[in-house]
Design goal:
Elements lengths: L19 H17 L8 E2 L1 H8 L3 H14 L2 E4 L3 E4 L4 H25 L2 H20 L2 H19 L2 H11 L3 H4 L3 E2 L3 H17 L3 H24 L6 E2 L3
Parallel strand pairs: 4-5
Antiparallel strand pairs: 1-3, 2-3
Length: 240
């Protein structure tokens, strides 16, 4: 992955003057998105002066954003040593996925019970796009649709507390620490798993949705273990 040329490019922001609080929110949101998207790699230094230029924000807003991201576990701040993108250990990565699985099973059950026609329509569209990527052999495009599919399930569950918690777990940059190509055969299995989850939600069957999500995330955990085992060789992409 190519590193971001910090200080040479700016994140696009909407025109118009904003108050200090709005700029602070923007700096946090934009930096968070950049870390999750892999623009800053694990253990990369985050220099306030450079970030101020990239984010088009003052040093105070950048510092506040780093404090907030430190609290979320995306950044590590050390006294007199600045901040870095937090490097997740292999053991912690496995623990994150285990906790995430418990929350996502709950959300799948609730989505099956509470989803409405709009929720189903949105899930169906993302799943159709995933099928197209699979048919074209576009593993990266497929992988990039995974977060959207899961986020729609969280929304359909109508449980913002659980959705917020699982979203924080998902933002730990695991897929960028364990990258860059899919495990052989993973995309095909993943698509079948997502089809089963979708079918259970459409049928408004919480038990089946729970079981389908459990089976899916057990495969995700196994893929993560495989990626960890292969880290000393060619890096592999962690995909749902």
């Amino acid at each position: 992955m190519a590193r971001t040329k910090v200080g040479r490019e700016r994140v696009a922001r909407k025109p118009g003057r904003k108050g200090a609080s709005e700029v602070g929110v923007d700096a946090y949101r934009l930096l968070r998105q950049a870390i999750i998207a892999g623009r800053f790699v694990p253990n990369e230094r985050l220099v306030e002066a450079n970030l101020s230029k990239v984010l088009d924000a003052g040093r105070t807003a950048v510092r506040a954003a780093l404090v907030r991201l430190d609290q979320e576990g995306l950044v590590t701040r050390e006294h007199n040593r600045g901040a870095r993108v937090r490097l997740v250990s292999d053991d912690e990565a496995l623990q994150i996925e285990e906790v995430r699985a418990a929350l996502e099973r709950l959300l799948a059950r609730q989505a099956a019970a509470k989803s409405n026609a709009g929720d189903i329509r949105d899930l169906r569209q993302v799943l159709a796009d995933m099928r197209k990527c699979f048919a074209k052999g576009d593993a990266i495009g497929y992988s990039e649709l995974n977060p959207r599919f899961h986020q729609l399930i969280w929304a359909a569950a109508k449980n913002p507390t659980a959705g917020r918690l699982v979203g924080t777990l998902k933002s730990q940059s695991l897929r960028f620490q364990y990258q860059t190509m899919l495990r052989p055969g993973r995309t095909e299995r993943s698509l079948r798993e997502h089809e089963l989850i979708f079918g259970a939600i459409v049928a408004h069957d919480p038990e089946s949705a729970d079981a389908a999500m459990r089976d899916h995330l057990e495969e995700v955990l196994e893929t993560l273990r495989w990626a960890i085992d292969h880290k000393s060789r060619q890096p592999q992409w962690l995909s749902d």
